[in-house]
Amino acid sequence: MPKNEKLKSILIIGSGPIVIGQACEFDYAGSQSLRSLREDGIETILINSNPATIMTDPSMADHVYLLPLTTKSIIQILKEHPQIDAVLPTMGGQTALNLCIEADEKGIWKDFDVDLIGVDIDAINITEDREKFRELMLKIGVGMAPQATATSFLKGKEIAQEFGFPLVIRASYTLGGAGASIVYKPEDFDDLLRRGLEISPIHEVMIDKAMMGWKEYELELLRDKNNNVVIICAIENMDPMGIHTGDSITVAPAMTLSDTTYQKMRDLAIKMMRSIGDFEGGCNVQFAVSPDDKEDIIAIEINPRVSRSSALASKATGYPIAKVATKLAIGYSLDELENQITKSTSALFEPTLDYVIVKIPRWNFDKFEGSDRTLGLQMKAVGEVMGIGRSFQEALHKATQSLEIKRNGLGADGKGYKDYDQIISKLTHASWDRVFVIYDAIQMGIPLSRIHDITKIDMWYLRQYEELYMLEKEISTYTIASLDRDLLLEAKQKGFADRQIAHMLGCYESEVYNKRTELKINRVYKLVDTCAAEFKAMTPYYYSTFEAEIETPDGTRYVENDSEVSDKKKIVVLGSGPNRIGQGIEFDYCCVHGVLAAAECGYETVMINCNPETVSTDFDTADKLYFEPVFWEHIYDIIRHEKPEGVIVQLGGQTALKLAEKLSKYGIKIIGTSFESLDLAEDRGSFSTLLKENNIPYPEFDIAETADEALAVADKLDFPILVRPSYVLGGQGMKIVINKQELEEHVVDLLRKIPNNKLLLDHYLDGAIEAEADAICDGENVYIIGIMEHIEPCGIHSGDSNATLPPFNLGEFVMQQIKDHTKKIALALNTVGLINIQFAIKDDTVYIIEANPRASRTVPFIAKAYGEPYVNYATKVMLGEKKVTDFDFKPHLDGYAIKQPAFSFNKFPNVDKKLGPEMKSTGESILFIDSLKDDEFYNLYSRRKMYLSK
Amino acid sequence: MKYQSRKKALILLADGTIFHGKAVGETEGSAFGEVCFNTGMTGYQEIFTDPSYYGQLMVTTNAHIGNYGTKEEESQSDSVKIAGLICRNFSYQYSREQADDSLENFLAKSNLIAISDVDTRALVSHIRDNGAMNGVITTEVEKLDELKKQLAAVPNMDGLELASKVSTKEPYYFGDENSNYKVAALDIGIKKNILRNIASRGAYVKVFPYDTKFEDMAAWNPDGYFLSNGPGDPEPLKSAIGVAKQIIEKDKPLFGICLGHQVIALANGVSTYKMHNGHRGINHPVKNLLTGKGEITSQNHGFAVNREEAESNTELEVTHVHLNDDTVAGIKMKNKNCFSVQYHPEASPGPNDSLYLFDQFIENIAKAN
To answer: Which residues contact B291 (CB under 8 A, 6 or more apart)?
Structure first.
């Protein structure tokens, strides 16, 4: 009997709102897991408080509970479903594991006769209790860094005395390295020790001797009930020990490990997994290797669950770890399962790659004014991108092109640092842009050995960088006319963008593009297939590269392309790139639903995205997945290859939307609302004219491009004035100023950071109430899917506000204005698809703050609260398959749904936690309340008064 | 330092297809052989020096080759055994404190021709779809017509005896002569790590040339016999097959790996055949039918043992199968002290999941004593 037939109903715990260290990779894991259980006919019950997830879609599980992740909710669910046989807590990150332990300690699982599958409590305890873990490792002969535990301040001081500096403090039972720090100097020790003790729920810290500069690796393991263990992926951190792996640039396969050392590490990992307990599923092990000739290996930690790295490993190899881990948890053994990619070979194997992946984290330090931007043991990144290429250089370039930080790759854009001291300082204190600074340092002529001394980055990587720079230098000696095919091909193979090559040659991007088209240097697409082409694979998961030519016996030359184009009509959906504040999992939710809806309409769907954490980049989501940067050159080449009917840009947030102009210019059809309308909504001048024509009020405003102009505008508008740049995300750079001095300072600052921006200056409606509406429009009819009222007053970014659906105290008169305005604006903008409009309400007048004819952050929330598939409907409208009047809308909600933002301030101890017009939250959760008498609402509402009284 | 462009080079396959690439280093000329691919992501040096690869043009599927240089101790024989190397990206610069040379120098010492910048993925798919075939890699891109003629004259691997090319000419010893046991190993292409694994378990090994007679091996009075891995078709190895028959007849402890495994099958009257494109990599799943457990194994073979014949043979039991294609991965004799595996328990490169087989061999010897 392959699987455990006793398991008929299983509870899965999600990971809750997105915070730093726990992002949408757990939506990916949970969704896969639910699908995997369903395949086996098992009833699924899910608890997760995060509404912006695919896993919480009604179609994903038999019963979905959007409840707070507390033992109270668990008891409620177990009472309502006494049939639940087991709980699978390994798909929801540390949050789910912690909840599982709490429930276990309270005896809840025992009371309801629920088995724990996929992990055992002892294994969690051992791996979380660093002292026990250490004992165990030493017992089984696995090396560890010298370490000691402190449960008091005094004990901590003693340990430091013994170890000397630098050393590392880690708080027990915390997430993403919260409370962890490297201490270089004795004078910093006291504060950091105190903080670690405070953050740990059991007031315990581990003090390790720092293994700074050791090479860092992660292995992803799977084990079945027969104790078979396979390694799915070995990931090498380009940034050595000292920087949290979530903040490190990581590479797979391992680039600088010999077979001898790798096999030792593999043996240790297997031994460790077998030693911590008896469980079936996934596991992540981290190691450090000494960079000297000893190649000593020490264990750092082991996580007995699906992790951020397993999502990355799944995308890096094509092997769906969460899906298989789930099958193992319900009793299958690896040899009974098939390889999901080839469908012809066994799941008991270790994937092999014929490409390289590079992951680069995405940070948002600009949102945390005053934060320490140096990277260290505590994770600070809010998202990540992955680049896939046929060489490290190509993958690195593609990852840098995916970041959306206005860089085109490494070098060749004139944006590099040129100051020696600044470069050395940036190398020394690793920050978000070190990946670029290494290139600048080489460009400046700083010896590789010096860069290596400072960063401890393996010389192999630095030489790869060096070769890129030498190639840039070589190409720069040519002109577009004199550059030969070989060199151009090499530059493309090494990942340089047309735009960068144009910069080197001093010509236009289009000239480079034309030249390479002429010379037949075209992108080809290769398959991610787990097996380096050894077996034929059926899974449509592609990445691009440039390859050398092949010649058939009759002399025909061609370049091999794995991606065959079908004759079906196709739709391309542009993804939302890396998670960041203001653009997170909500947009991935929208993209996935867009894909599914387009498929329902009979289209072949093509997804383009570069965020490895997401469901949209699961090879099961779209008919074809191109794991590529959402970067013009890559997108255009895919479109030329696939020749779709059109491109959906309104689901992928600002990332996709900002490509609309160029798509439109190149004659590519934008599905739904046209570029002109998107642009009209974004252009404050034209948009206000539109509002004026429709008799819709808006706060007085003007536009300024210099500080002088801004001051002149201030003479017309009354203070307070809200200043914001155009075309930005999540209220970046938005500020309310109360006098001319503040205005001048802020404008000067903004124009320095974002040159040539048009700044918008609004008269700020002090004390107003904020509300927003989302609607679907087909160009003729408008259906408002939901109106939400912010609990905090105007001035707090909508993403950071608590908000209720429906509004809790807006009168009939105000509601009518909101509805009328929404409909008028949607029609006036010729919206086809979704639109979100934000309002400020003062003295019973509804003013328009802004309108965005695209999917908004709130759409998934409203869809979950009302139990309606709005993105699906909107996509069908966009495609012209349906009219708004074709749908039978049946929203259902008893009471209210409150959207509650989640913050990650604990990762930034010195940051101003005050909320304002600039968004700072990283995630959100949903709370259903029966009435406004609910305590939770009352608490939030009383805080509103506090804001007003300020 | 200046960016270095490399000279053109190419691979011409027996079916006339040409894959373009760049020459690695300064070595010029042409090399002929059977084109095969290995999917391992580590262990290139071990592969290149493995005698089983003698005469083959090796396509490495890993995106980069040469990153960590070479280290003498990791070689599996005293020289490079492949006929030529085909890869996507070649690392001229390496990084590893333990390394004693770059892969470029290591290959140049053997005058080995290597070519990089090839669409290796397309080449692997081509072999996968059309089967293993001969080819030539060359830096002499102007001499295509001549090379085509020469290529046509290269013999097919099917029926080709190659053990004689890689076997030791004279017997030699390995290990500690005061060990508990003595093992006589017939070298039809033996890897160093096999010797290390046997010796480290308390056996003194004497390695005999491929054409040694059983009597000459028996004269040393060994406690057990070992038949090694090696290149080429097992069928022409009449002498080795004869030796195997005699060892079995005497019921002496016998262990065979890879080519040695095929020789044992042939000695039992079970035939072997040339596979479509063979198994070469370090991620091959094998199931041990005796324990029900899986192991990830290192494999390198282009020939296999006929499963039907092995199963219907009353003397034999199939003990291990390859999970991807159900081919025979291990056999034992029901009434004799003899077993063998198609894969490489000695790893190097590859996982150490199957080291228990060496323990078993030593146990078998202990029991027989």
So the answer is: none
Active site (catalytic) residues of B: 258, 344, 346
C-alpha A365/C-alpha A753 separation (Å) is: 14
Main-chain phi, psi angles of B11, to 5 degrees? -115, 130
Fold topology of B163-368: Rossmann fold (3.40.50)
CATH topology of domain A570-672: Rossmann fold (3.40.50)
CB distance B76 to B46 below 8 Å? yes
pLDDT digits (tens, 9 = 90+) for A615-650: 999 999 999 999 999 999 999 999 999 999 999 999
Are B63 and A392 a contacting pair at CB < 8 A?
A: yes
Contact (CB<8Å) B119/A547? yes
CA distance A492 to A228: 42
Inter-chain contact B323–A458, Cβ cutoff 8 Å?
no
Do domains A700-763 and A770-949 share one topology? The answer is no
CATH of A770-949, one of 3.30.470.20, 1.10.8.60, 3.40.50.150, 3.10.150.10: 3.30.470.20
List, in sequence order, every residue forming a beta bridge with B38; answer none if it has no partner: B60
User: What is the per-residue pLDDT across A418-468, written as a single tens digit (0 to 9) for each?
Assistant: 999 999 999 999 989 999 999 999 999 999 999 999 999 999 999 999 999
Q: Which of helix, strand or coil describes residue A131?
A: helix
Query: CB atoms < 10 A from the CB of A848, how many?
Result: 22
Phi/psi-derived region of residue A667, left when phi > 0, alpha when psi is between -120 and 50, beta in every other case: left
> What is the DSSP annotation of A535-591?
S-----EEEEE----EE-TTS-EE---S-PPPSS-EEEEE---S-BTTBSHHHHHHH
Please determine, for residue B29, whether its predicted confidence score (pLDDT) is greater than 80: yes
Return the CATH class of domain A9-117. alpha beta
Domain ranges of chain B: 8-152, 163-368
From residue A715, how far is each of A308, A721, A759, A765, B88 by CA, in Å? 52, 11, 16, 17, 65
Amino acid at A689: T
Task: Say if residue B228 carries a ligand binding annotation.
Answer: no
pLDDT band per the 50, 70, 90 thresholds, residue A345: confident
Class at the top of the CATH hierarchy for domain A406-521: mainly alpha
- For B98, which DSSP code? T
Judging contacts by C-beta atoms under 8 Å, the chain B residues touching residue A255 are 64, 67
Q: CB of A260 within 8 Å of any CB in chain B?
A: yes
Give contacts of B91 with chain A, Cβ < 8 Å: 460
> What number does CATH give the domain B8-152?
3.50.30.20
Contact status, residue B336 vs residue B305, Cβ threshold 8 Å: no
Is the distance from CB of A405 to CB of A435 less than 8 angstroms?
A: no
Q: Is the pTM of this model over 0.90?
A: yes
Closest residue in A to B42 (Cα–Cα): A259
What the block records as the tokens of A944 is 């509103």
Among the four given CATH numbers 3.40.190.10, 3.30.1490.20, 1.10.490.10, 3.40.710.10, the one describing domain A700-763: 3.30.1490.20
Contacts with B288 from chain A: Cβ below 8 Å? none
Q: Do A259 and B42 touch (CB under 8 A)?
A: yes
Distance CA B174, CA B172 (A): 7
The CA angle A642-A647-A648, to the nearest 5 degrees, is 140
Provide the CB-side half-sphere exposure for A790 (13 A, CA): 26
Of A267, A526, A553, which is closest to B121 when you measure between CB atoms?
A526
Q: What is the DSSP letter of B61?
A: -
Q: What homologous superfamily is domain A215-351 in, according to CATH?
A: ATP-grasp fold, B domain (3.30.470.20)
Predicted pLDDT at A376: 86
Nearest C-alpha of chain B: how many angstroms from A552? 5
User: Is A35 within 8 Å of A28 (Cβ atoms)?
Assistant: no
What ipTM is given for this predicted complex? 0.97
pLDDT at A703: 87
